[in-house]
Design brief:
Shape: elongated
CATH class of the largest domain: Alpha Beta
Strand order of the largest sheet: 1-2-3-4-5-6-7
Largest sheet: 7 strands, mixed
Number of strands: 7
Number of domains: 2
CATH architecture of the largest domain: 2-Layer Sandwich
Number of helices: 3
Order of helices and strands: HEEEHEEHEE
Structural class: alpha/beta
């Protein structure tokens, strides 16, 4: 034997050779699957907030564009112009329907008929005296705002879903 001996270096900290050591385990928040899921979740939240911001910025909802008149919301769809909505808003202020209370009304058009949707308390759509008053209001809106064009006033629930459609009176009552 020679004075040179075959020496093997041994890692004193690990009992296993380097090739047999297990890879280091990462904590859960540093794993790739978590980072992908977290990134996708943040992207979804970001898109949602962007859409909400655009809706608030433009004033558009599923009721249409919003016009604030004397603390009331007058929504109008693409079927009518903003000028028509402003004219109706001015008429409703003059008629003291928009009297500072928070109320939401929708203006739209179906065919040749202009529809004005009013929310009413439950049961008012069945009250014939109230319906007669609404019919006369529809006539006034037709004559004063829409130059005699057909108007229908829809009595609606609080979500502006029609309970009863009331065509305007043909003459003033």
């Amino acid at each position: 034997m020679s004075s040179q001996s075959c020496a093997v270096e041994v890692d004193r900290e690990s009992p296993l050779p380097a090739a047999q050591q297990a890879p280091a385990v990462r904590p859960w928040h540093q794993r790739r699957w978590y980072q992908v899921i977290f990134g996708c979740g943040m992207a979804v939240i970001g898109v949602f907030r962007l859409c909400n911001g655009l809706i608030l910025l433009t004033g558009a909802t599923n009721y249409g564009a919003r016009l604030e008149v004397n603390h009331a919301n007058l929504y109008y769809t693409r079927a009518v112009s903003q000028e028509d909505a402003k004219a109706l808003g001015a008429f409703l202020v003059e008629a003291k329907i928009f009297d500072g209370r928070h109320i939401s009304i929708q203006l739209t058009r179906e065919g040749q008929t202009t529809q004005v949707r009013f929310p009413v308390k439950p049961g008012f759509d069945k009250d014939e005296v109230y319906v007669g008053t609404i019919r006369a209001l529809g006539y006034q809106i037709s004559q004063n705002v829409f130059h005699g064009a057909p108007v229908e006033v829809d009595l609606c629930d609080q979500n502006l879903k029609t309970l009863r459609a009331v065509p305007a009176a043909l003459t003033s009552t």
